[in-house]
Amino acid sequence: MENLVKHQLQDLYQTDDYLWLQKTIEILKIKNFNNLDLDSLIEELESLGRSEFNKVRSLLRQIIIHLLLLEYWEQEYEQNYRHWQAEIIAFRDDLSHELTTTLKNKLIPELDSIYQVAVSLVSKKTGLSQSLFPTVCPYLFEQLLEDNWYPPNNLNRIN
User: Left (φ > 0), alpha (ψ -120 to 50) or beta: where does 147 sit?
Assistant: First the structure.
């Protein structure tokens, strides 16, 4: 019987992963661990971990993008700086609700690569040369999370 239930769950995982999830939760709730489809459960947990990391990585990238817009996009500054600041507030709030110590420790070493993607996106959006931006992230991780912290406006450097 155990093998039949496991086999049915494995098939279900391939055809209807949401129903598989509901059935797996039922099995866990009744502590019927012998009937778990462990391979699929492990796959789902790994996927969940990647999703959580990608979510916080994306939020951090959005914060950096908007900080760069604030700091460097002279042509749009007056019309948009309040909007960019509001976006930063929202992204920081979302990030603060998702960020755990472990995710933070995994994000910090990736800061420069996240920054490079943000620079590419800002350059494409604004038409500003990538050479205008620092080659490594000029923001401390703590600054990126800090409410009400914004970089000094570098409009006097742009010409």
Answer: beta
